[in-house]
From TrEMBL:
This is 3-hydroxybutyryl-CoA dehydrogenase. Belongs to the 3-hydroxyacyl-CoA dehydrogenase family. Residues 184-279 form the 3-hydroxyacyl-CoA dehydrogenase C-terminal domain. PROSITE patterns: 3HCDH. Transmembrane segments: none annotated. The keyword Oxidoreductase applies. Gene3D superfamilies: N-(1-d-carboxylethyl)-l-norvaline Dehydrogenase, domain 2, NAD(P)-binding Rossmann-like Domain. Pathway: Lipid metabolism; butanoate metabolism. The record marks 138 as: Important for catalytic activity. GO terms for biological process: butyrate metabolic process. One of its GO terms (molecular function) is oxidoreductase activity, acting on the CH-OH group of donors, NAD or NADP as acceptor. Keywords: Oxidoreductase. It comes from Youngiibacter fragilis 232.1.
Amino acid sequence: MKKVGVIGGGVMGSGITEVISKAGIDVVNVDIYPSGLENSKKRITKDMAYLVKKGALTREEADLVLRKITYSTSYESIKDCDFVIEAVPEKIELKKELFSKLDEIVTKEAILASNASALKITEIAGGTKTPERCIGMHFFHPAPVMKLVEIMMGKETSQETFRKSLEFASRIGKIAVPAPESPGFIVNRILVPMINEAAFLVMEGCNPKDVDDAMKLGANHPMGPLELCDYTGVDITYGTMKALYDGFKDEKYKPCPLLIEMIEMGKCGRKTGQGFYKY
Ligand code: 3HC
């Protein structure tokens, strides 16, 4: 594994870029928007400063991590990558179009992975002529800290792609768990309805802090569900819940109306300064 491409300079894209460079692999972070790349660079630089400050890395080690990353607005810069992971917004048409583009540009031996959190890799790979090299590889926020990567095979993914993806996950210090292609895979199918239920409690009059305290103290969760919702984004939680609802066509996955109301009011969590809490 000599060079990896990560498409998308958002929170997940920058986190995945950081994980790969920390594993000592050259990585190109591509975003068509220069501002996306700027933000990605800022986040990774800030993380490195934090790790140096707490003594987890030396300044030299942190600088080496930063030097392994190249930022680019051109897809051409990933044509010789061995592995490419996309982390662009969760929209099927966008991901399909991107995969079709990557299929043309990236060397045929490379694997094309998607960090989609609820969409099917079979459908995303439908935009390519080589679905056998496409695979789902779902990271968790914050990517540099969370150990898990869910691996989803599409209907046409080859065993070779699956094997190489497991090897890659291990090479970058993650633990891979194979998961079904069904909406939400394993973690989001369980986690997001829990957050949705917590939002219903608030809608019925509960105090967000009480709900969070109860789950932290009674279930040993590191963050309460509403804190976590603010942390990952109210819009992201709603989007995943809606994908479960649309995918399973089951009323039990109906998104909580409070989430919709909060998004309409621009209360999307930490990134907007307000969600269930003020920041
Ligand atoms: N690289 C390496 N290590 C890092 C790091 C980085 N960039 N940033 C932080 N760390 C380390 C810290 O050094 C610390 O290590 P230590 O325990 O050895 O000191 C450890 O990670 C924890 O960091 P902090 O002390 O800063 O923070 P907390 O202890 O408060 O933990 C948390 C923060 C890890 C976010 C924890 O609250 C947590 O696990 N929350 C739940 C997160 C979760 O559930 N994520 C999943 C969301 S769902 C999802 O992602 C799906 C998607 O589809 C939306």
